[in-house]
Every structure is written in structure tokens, then in C-alpha cells.
Design the sequence.
């Protein structure tokens, strides 16, 4: 039974994961039919009342935030068969998870360097929600956008709680227009700053939050670290964050992970080919033939990304773009959720000590979950990821605390500053 499930999922679904509707021609047999899952042991020695031992929970904000996420008092039970292997769970979630049908309204935002990003808002929110409704910005993973199932599920769950939601589609992602010879990267925070500033100016009475997945989570955490006390966000959630891109790159080129590498490099090539004319006469260190035929994400980054953002080598780009060094500077309430068996965001890259020492951070690590999987919980196997209720409970708690914060002035920003000082 396991062999049939594994063969079917891996052979058909792998490249649809973050690649789009065109499948990557691939047939893979399953080498994991005799795999035995090892028991998960938490690195936390002292547990609070109500915390279940099936998850690892740590962080400097543990005592403060743990009571707000009641889901963690119940055991983490991955769905049988699907979750027996991290690759099966990762691919199953990408291919078989339902994608909610939501009408979106697109806004194209021109950036300071004449680039463009696309903001997808839930259609009708302007009429339904008050101006001070809490607002959450969603940041998808590499090549991802508002059409991805994990993004849609979070969008729907937040919307049902009367939250305003906007999906931040980076340059070239989610059919976002590309108007300059520059895409986005793990290192570049300019677009993130401008999007947050734009959204904040449009809804000055609302508290702002953000949720990021994978590379989007890496960008989000780096943004929080760089902005530190100056971030207008009242809270954030990071999921499947690779944290250490050097380690992720090493693992990406090993074993079955090469399949993900090929699928994602194909997605990057597709984005590039749509806008190849912008790079036709570009010179310098760019290696356009390498980019156009990139067989790996590393080749794409070496030929284009690291040059666009001023790095001498792809290794220098990965080292300086990792969010692991940003955690110590984060002053915004931050929930990080990881899976111990994530094949793309390795567990050993999680900056556990910095998270433990930061009074604003809470880390939750599940024993299984794969990458963007978490096929568990009440809606498994085809519904929303196990993480979604956890994320919303955390954000709702922060919003409730914001409402309790005393008003210190007529400027709506004063309320956010007061809450920030109370939390830190």
C-alpha cells in the first residue's frame, strides 16, 4: 500500500509543487518502502502545563505566548500513510490538497526602482470590513503566489475571522509583472519595506501582521531583524523557514532533494523566459545562457540573482541572505513553526539558541510535516494544513492584546508603540 501511494504521488506531483499547471515529466520509484520513522524527542527539558510532548516548544516568549495557542495541548497526529515519509507528505500536500476558490482583486504596485509587485486583495473587503479591521500580509515561498493552496487556505481562514488579507506576489511570481531586469531575492528587503509602508498608509487605523512560508518566511524574518524597533508590524509568523541558506543549498543537491531542485529551477526558468527581452543587452557578470538553461536553483542564482544584488559568489549570497542571524534583532512578536523532517528547511539550521534568548520569539517544531505539508489535524488529508488554526490563534491573541492596550494619543501609531513596549 505504501509503495503504491509513494510511486503515484512522487511520479505525478513533484513538479507541480510551486511550478504551476505544467507538470515536470518525471517517474520516480520509491526507495522508502522499508523506512522506519524514529521517535521524536523534544530538546525542551521543562514543559508548561497543557503542552503536549509530541511537539518541541521553546523560545524566550514561551511562557507569554504558549497559553494563547491551545492547539498545542493536543497531540500532533500526522495522517496515516501520507506522513510516513517526508517526501510523500510534501508532494501529497502540494498535489492533492484542495485549493479554495476565492475572488481576488489585484493591485500592481510600482516600486522605487520602477519595478512592480502584485498585491492580491480579497474582493469585496472594502465594503464588508471596517477600516480598522486587522490586516495580514501573506508572503508565499519561492516562485509561489496567491494561487497556491497553502496560501489560499490561510487567506480563507483569516477572512472568516473578519481579517483583511493581502497576498504579496513578488516580482514575476503569481503572474506579477516584471518591468526591470531584476527579480526578487532572499537578500532584497526593498520591496517588503515598500509593501508594508503602502499597506500601512492605506489602512492607518489597522494593526498590521504578516505570515511567510519558506523563502517568504526567510525574507519576513530578515525584514523584522533589520527593522527591529522600527517595524510597523504588530506580529508575524514564519513557517518552513530555511533560516540557513548555506545548509539548505547543501541539502538541496543531495538524494531525492534533487527532484525539488529541478522542479524549482524549471519554475525559475519559466519566469525568466517570459521576460528574457529585459535581459537581452545586459552585460557585466551576468551569465544569461546559464540562467536560460539552469538545471538547478544554484545555477540560476549564480548566473543572475547574486549578480543583480551585488554578491561576488553564490555562496556569499546564501550566507548573507540567511535569516538565522536576524532572530537576535527581532523586536516584533514572532511565532516560528518548523517540521523536524523538513527536507528543504533542515532542522539543524534553526537558530534555536537565539530564539530561546529572544523574549519576542516562540518556536514550535513538529516531528513530521515535510515542507509546506503538515497533513494532520481535523481537516486532513485534503483540507487546510495543521498549522493554520495555530497561526490564527496566535495572531488573534496579539490583536486582542492590542485592543486592550491603553491609548496614549490621537495618532493610531501610538497604540501600536504602546503595545510593542508592553510586549517587549
Sequence:
Amino acid at each position: 500500500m505504501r509503495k503504491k501511494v509513494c510511486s503515484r504521488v512522487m511520479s505525478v506531483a513533484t513538479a507541480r509543487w510551486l511550478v504551476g499547471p505544467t507538470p515536470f515529466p518525471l517517474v520516480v520509484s520509491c526507495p522508502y518502502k522499508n523506512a522506519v520513522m524514529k521517535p521524536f524527542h523534544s530538546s525542551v527539558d521543562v514543559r508548561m502545563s497543557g503542552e503536549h510532548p509530541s511537539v518541541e516548544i521553546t523560545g524566550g516568549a514561551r511562557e507569554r505566548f504558549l497559553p494563547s495557542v491551545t492547539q498545542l495541548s493536543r497531540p500532533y497526529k500526522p495522517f496515516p500513510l501520507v506522513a510516513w515519509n517526508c517526501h510523500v507528505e510534501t508532494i501529497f500536500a502540494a498535489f492533492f490538497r484542495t485549493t479554495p476558490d476565492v475572488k481576488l482583486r489585484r493591485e500592481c504596485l510600482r516600486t522605487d526602482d520602477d519595478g512592480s509587485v502584485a498585491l492580491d486583495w480579497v474582493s469585496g473587503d472594502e465594503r464588508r470590513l471596517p477600516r480598522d479591521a486587522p490586516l495580514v500580509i501573506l508572503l508565499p515561498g519561492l516562485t509561489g503566489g496567491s494561487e497556491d493552496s497553502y496560501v489560499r487556505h490561510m487567506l480563507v481562514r483569516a477572512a472568516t475571522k473578519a481579517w483583511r488579507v493581502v497576498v504579496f506576489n513578488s516580482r514575476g511570481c503569481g503572474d506579477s509583472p516584471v518591468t526591470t531586469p531584476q527579480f526578487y531575492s532572499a537578500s532584497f528587503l526593498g520591496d517588503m519595506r515598500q509593501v508594508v509602508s503602502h499597506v500601512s498608509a492605506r489602512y492607518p487605523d489597522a494593526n498590521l501582521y504578516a505570515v511567510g512560508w519558506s523563502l517568504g518566511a526567510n525574507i519576513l524574518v530578515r525584514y523584522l531583524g533589520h527593522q527591529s524597533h522600527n517595524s510597523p508590524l504588530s506580529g508575524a509568523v514564519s513557517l518552513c523557514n530555511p533560516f540557513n541558506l548555506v545548509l539548505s543549498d547543501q541539502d538541496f543537491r543531495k538524494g531525492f532533494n534533487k527532484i525539488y531542485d529541478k522542479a524549482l529551477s524549471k519554475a525559475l526558468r519559466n519566469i525568466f523566459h517570459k521576460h528574457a527581452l529585459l535581459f537581452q543587452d545586459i552585460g557585466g557578470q551576468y551569465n544569461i545562457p546559464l540562467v536560460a538553461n539552469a538545471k538547478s536553483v544554484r545555477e540560476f542564482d549564480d548566473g543572475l540573482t547574486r549578480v543583480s544584488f551585488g554578491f561576488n559568489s553564490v555562496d556569499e549570497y546564501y550566507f548573507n541572505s540567511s535569516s538565522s542571524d536576524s532572530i537576535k534583532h527581532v523586536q516584533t512578536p514572532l511565532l516560528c513553526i518548523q517540521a523536524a523532517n523538513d527536507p528543504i528547511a533542515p532542522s539543524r539550521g534553526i537558530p534555536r539558541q537565539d530564539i530561546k534568548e529572544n523574549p519576542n520569539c516562540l518556536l514550535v517544531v513538529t516531528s513530521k510535516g515535510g515542507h509546506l505539508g503538515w497533513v494532520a489535524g481535523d481537516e486532513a488529508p485534503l483540507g487546510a494544513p495543521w498549522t493554520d488554526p495555530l497561526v490564527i490563534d496566535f495572531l488573534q491573541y496579539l490583536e486582542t492584546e492590542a485592543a486592550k492596550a491603553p491609548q496614549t494619543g490621537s495618532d493610531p501609531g501610538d497604540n501600536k508603540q504602546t503595545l510593542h513596549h508592553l510586549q517587549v
